[in-house]
Structure of dTDP-4-amino-4,6-dideoxygalactose transaminase:
Amino acid sequence: MTLKFPSAAEAAGRTLGDEEVAAAERVIRSGMLNAVWGTEAKALEREMAELCGARHAVACSSGTAALHLAVVAAAPDPGDEIITTPLTDFGTVAPILSQNAVPVFADVDPLSGNLDPAAVRAAITPRTRAIMAVHLFGAPAALDELRAIADEHGLMLIEDCAQAWLGELPDGRPVGGVGEVGCFSLQQWKHITCGDGGLVVTDDDALARAMRLFSDKGWDRAGGRHHLSFGLNYRMTELQAAVARVQLARLPGVVAARRRWALRLLRELAGLPGLVLPDPRGHAWWYFPIVLPGGGATELAAKLAADGIPAQAGYLAEPLNRAPLWDGPMYGTSRFPLSAPPAACPEADRLVGETLLIVDLNENYTADHVAAIADGFRRYVQISGIDPS
């Protein structure tokens, strides 16, 4: 019988339990499901700020909404540019376009897949307003280098921490606190979940106010029904917040378990030829990524998947700078704010097309799951390298 791997799409791969059920019931029985007049979202914000050591946390309806709030905080004028990575979910890029700004894609490190600081520096123009770094698969981006570049050019640094809950820099500093704004996701497949939901953290009072206003239609609820600025309805519900609060308390255990299984898998795979294993320092392990510098990731992933191991090649169908959407209009028939196709990112192309393989990692794995993954790699990785035959 094939070993079944826990998946975040089902209860066996989640940490949802009686406490979440009780939290949801508490909200339903209260009769107040809206966070404007409720208490759960406000409590979640306090608990998130405390967890991150931040002055402010703002809850919102999704991780994409969280990133949109961060872009609003950067305050780009129409046509201004925000530099980001082509190896990310489209939720990183959609908020940039939503503010009529231009996403500028910088190439990535060929081993981590995170932004290459040298490529970021080369992409800066007089219209650049921010750098949006993604901690891909839970691996911390090169934040010190990106922070120095941002400071040198007077740019905001935004951290997309959707895949990096409790991730850390090599010196132990938490991700989310180096940039002016850190953004987190509570979507179904993340470390913790309330189905969908987002949180932003910041130490800047003015940015926190701007993001809070934007999330509630520019309405300062303490000042009467006056809309002080343009905004949308990105409010989190009390049901989301109540479940998220329980999940937030479970987070340290979730990340600790993922780190334990990842370290065990690293030991099992050490020494296999043709594989570059991920750096575990500060890693939050959303996925377990492996790079095959000689290529062959697609073939190897297919063989592993055929054996029931949750592996896939490339992560995306294509890097976002090559997505079909750039060939069409943005708004109506207009291509504004775009004026040219995105730049090429050859390292991202190679990762997606040839060298990147990712394996699901889950806090509910057992030693048997890790052993099955390691055995699968040993079957197909030969002493001479990857054998695609």
